[in-house]
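Title: Prediction job returns without error message
Component: structure pipeline
Severity: low
Priority: P3
Assignee: unassigned

Description:
Job completed but the reporter wants confirmation the result is attached to the right record. Sequence as submitted:
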Amino acid sequence: NALGGAIGGFDDEFGLHVDFILAAQLGYFFNGESNQGWYGKVIYHAKQQTVTVLESGAQRALFSQLVGPELGYEWDFFAGLLLRPRLGVLFYAQSPQPGRKPVNVGGLSYDNPTHTWVDAYFTVDLGYEFEL
């Protein structure tokens, strides 16, 4: 890739794409009155990624499961427009690289150092909410 694998965390001889992410979330707004203000969530992800050796086309599917909390704030600021900053930590219940060791893909050793035991994130959503 253009950044030398800096974002994906893998060597240039490999390609990586996400096949699917299945997610379940259970959340609670702490104000007890509406879906605004501070909230907390428990999140579960099941994810499959496919690693490809670019030269040979050999592939291997890597499956992982993650679970963890998220804390956020939802601010409905104008006619259904909302801003939602959120911070979360997802722990690998099942790593895509068993034992966090390199895996064999088409005779080459694939190691992605971003596959640690935890994924932390901070993001801000800008959205629109409407009633059905």
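Comment from assignee: result matches the submitted record. The chain has no helices and seven strands.
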